[in-house]
Amino acid sequence: MKTPLFIVLLGPPGAGKGTQAKRLAQALGLVHISTGDLFREHLKNETVLGQLAQSFMSKGELVPDDVTIKMVEERLAQPDCEQGAVLDGFPRTPAQAESLQDLLSQFGVGVKVAPLIAVPDDVLVERLSGRWMSTSGRVYHALYNPPAVKWIDDVDGSELYQRDDDKPETVRHRIEVYREQTAPLIDYFLKKGLLVEIDGTQAIDCVTENLMKAVKEA
Ligand code: AP5
């Protein structure tokens, strides 16, 4: 059996973590775990956890650590994670990073590499205000990654929508929360020798290429 491979994608809101995590997971045969997507799935299914998460997400605040860690623990316990995962949006606090280390010890491994997708704030606001989502999880951008027909998903023809937390004032608060609560993880992974900075302002394919290189060299 192959050694499980766990990759942590770091970066501010709108850096392209979701876009790239899907591509890496597909290329490497791993599962893509996005805590943001898991919370939105709970919200869609009207669970208690979904309602709780929404009260934080709508304000651009982080969902409390204990709730988030438990949800990730349950996800990692599923059989499709045996080969590893691309983690997108987790960990986001030092407490989550410590818990991840404990959770991965059950697989007999640690995080293999933690690429940081670096993008300046003005580009983040532009990316999130032009982001169009499909209910199936595909992500488009009005200018940089447009669907063939405006507001229509290329694959299933459904109508695209904008996320509630992509309003400019909420985006600005999410970036502040990232700087205060998540940016300390850059130092955490740097000290462990796992951090690789990737220029996230390049074209989507180019970022994927650089991420794949970072994973292969890890
Ligand atoms: P989450 O869903 O994780 O949001 P986020 O981290 O803020 O990241 P985004 O999804 O907004 O951006 P992204 O980096 O994935 O960029 P994308 O690829 O879409 O979290 C939402 C909320 O859930 C949080 O605020 C919090 O409340 C809660 N939450 C989640 N995880 C949590 C945790 N661990 N702890 C506590 N709370 C948690 O790209 C953005 C746009 O840019 C797209 O339109 C895309 O097409 C475009 N684009 C991407 N790459 C490029 C490129 N290279 N060039 C041009 N355009 C590009």
Automatic annotation (TrEMBL):
Alphabetic keyword roster: ATP-binding, Cytoplasm, Kinase, Nucleotide biosynthesis, Nucleotide-binding, Transferase
Localization (cell): Cytoplasm
Keyword Nucleus applies: no
E.C. code: 2.7.4.3
Annotated Adenylate kinase active site lid domain residues: 135-165
Entry-linked InterPro entries: Adenyl_kin_sub (IPR006259), Adenylat/UMP-CMP_kin (IPR000850), Adenylat_kinase_CS (IPR033690), Adenylate_kinase_lid-dom (IPR007862), P-loop_NTPase (IPR027417)
Metabolic or biological pathway: Purine metabolism; AMP biosynthesis via salvage pathway; AMP from ADP: step 1/1
Purpose: Catalyzes the reversible transfer of the terminal phosphate group between ATP and AMP. Plays an important role in cellular energy homeostasis and in adenine nucleotide metabolism.
Domain characteristics, as noted in the entry: Consists of three domains, a large central CORE domain and two small peripheral domains, NMPbind and LID, which undergo movements during catalysis. The LID domain closes over the site of phosphoryl transfer upon ATP binding. Assembling and dissambling the active center during each catalytic cycle provides an effective means to prevent ATP hydrolysis.
Family as reported in the entry's similarity comment: Belongs to the adenylate kinase family.
Protein name: Adenylate kinase
Organism from which the protein derives: Candidatus Brevifilum fermentans
